[in-house]
Amino acid sequence: MYETLAVVGATGAVGRIVLEQLQQRNLPFKKLKLLASERSVGKEVRFNGEAIKVELLAPGAFKNVDLAIGSTPDEIAAEFVPYAVKEGAVVVDESGYWRMDPKVPLIIPEVNPDAANKHEGILASPNCSTTQMVVALAPLHQVARVTRVVVSTYQATSGAGLPGSEELNDSVRSALVGQTHPPKTFQHPIGFNLIPQIGSSKYEGYTSEEMKMVYETQKILGDDGIQVCPTCVRVPVTNGHSESILVETEKHISVEEAKELFEAFEGITVVDDLPNNQYPMPRDCEGKDDVFVGRIRKDISSPNGIAFWCVSDNLRKGAATNAVQIAELLMKRS
Ligand code: 2RA
């Protein structure tokens, strides 16, 4: 039984949506504890009509906590998760720190729910760009086995948290009056620009964000043979990541079959009517929990390829919603 739930990083951009989702989805816990860094301690957050005071994230904070959802940077997760587990909590962690640990299942509830049965106190939620892509790949993989993916991302500034969104606004305002707002969160001004770098240089000219898409996809789909070639780009969009995906499968699937598979899969909404200018766009997907797929077409350059466009609210399915769904899954199975 998971009676006491803690939300770690409760006042951050994703933590706030975690709380919203917990209320909306009506998870069956009895007590809620909110934990955050010193800066937020003492703040009051309303939850189901009740004011809850934010407490300090520190050793001892997880006494009597059964389940914790963590939305913190990697370095905070590296530190707090071990003591939370030691104090008896099961942790659903949204940071990148634990994802590739072989003892930690990396879960998308619609894709690999059974992997959640085998954990040692920590379960991880994937990176936002990986999550939406893998939700879209899963129905094709189940039927035709995905062998190769070429993906380019168009990632919103909210992926870098509240400072990212503020920097977009400042950068656009400055550019409109012919000035340059000095970038702090991003490597270059983001207003009226694209930045083909998310994260740091990691491997053979690929960035850390790109390599997450490689390793996490293989881990979630349980197939190290899947080849992924990613290019991750930051775009001047406040919220909602978009991806252009080309997928090659072992078995041929037609465009019609691909459409049917997408439509039948839980968590995917198909918006695909090019003659009527209908396809997913970040503006339309903001605030929604599904992964949206459109522009579904055959790859005219190879025999077993399907190309499509995929959009999702990176703060929701890419982060908060997926973590809350993992918590929900654990509660249902306890
Ligand atoms: C980003 N994927 O968009 C990252 C956040 N985890 O910056």
Automatic annotation (TrEMBL):
UniProt keyword annotation of Cell wall biogenesis/degradation present: no
Superkingdom of the source species: Bacteria
Pathway info: Amino-acid biosynthesis; L-methionine biosynthesis via de novo pathway; L-homoserine from L-aspartate: step 2/3; Amino-acid biosynthesis; L-lysine biosynthesis via DAP pathway; (S)-tetrahydrodipicolinate from L-aspartate: step 2/4; Amino-acid biosynthesis; L-threonine biosynthesis; L-threonine from L-aspartate: step 2/5
Catalytic residue positions: C128 (acyl-thioester intermediate), H241 (proton acceptor)
A Pfam family the protein falls into: Semialdhyde_dh
Keyword Protein biosynthesis among record annotations: no
Reaction it catalyzes: L-aspartate 4-semialdehyde + phosphate + NADP(+) = 4-phospho-L-aspartate + NADPH + H(+)
Coiled-coil ranges per UniProt: none
Positions bound to phosphate: R99
Keywords: Amino-acid biosynthesis, Diaminopimelate biosynthesis, Lysine biosynthesis, Methionine biosynthesis, NADP, Oxidoreductase, Threonine biosynthesis
GO BP annotations, alphabetical order: 'de novo' L-methionine biosynthetic process; diaminopimelate biosynthetic process; isoleucine biosynthetic process; lysine biosynthetic process via diaminopimelate; threonine biosynthetic process
CDD domains named among the record's database cross-references: ASADH_C_bac_euk_like, VcASADH2_like_N
Membrane-spanning intervals of the chain: none
Residue sites binding NADP(+) per the record: T11, G12, A13, V14, R39, S40, S158, G159, N314
Record-annotated Semialdehyde dehydrogenase NAD-binding domain positions: 4-119
This enzyme's EC code(s): 1.2.1.11
First-tier enzyme category under EC: oxidoreductase
GO MF annotations, alphabetized: aspartate-semialdehyde dehydrogenase activity; NAD binding; NADP binding; protein dimerization activity
Record: residues binding substrate: Q155, R234
SUPFAM superfamilies linked to this entry: Glyceraldehyde-3-phosphate dehydrogenase-like, C-terminal domain, NAD(P)-binding Rossmann-fold domains
Role noted for this protein: Catalyzes the NADPH-dependent formation of L-aspartate-semialdehyde (L-ASA) by the reductive dephosphorylation of L-aspartyl-4-phosphate.
Alphabetical list of PANTHER family matching this protein: ASPARTATE-SEMIALDEHYDE DEHYDROGENASE, DEHYDROGENASE, PUTATIVE-RELATED
Stated family: Belongs to the aspartate-semialdehyde dehydrogenase family.
Subunit structure: Homodimer.
Record-given protein name: Aspartate-semialdehyde dehydrogenase
Gene it is expressed from: asd2
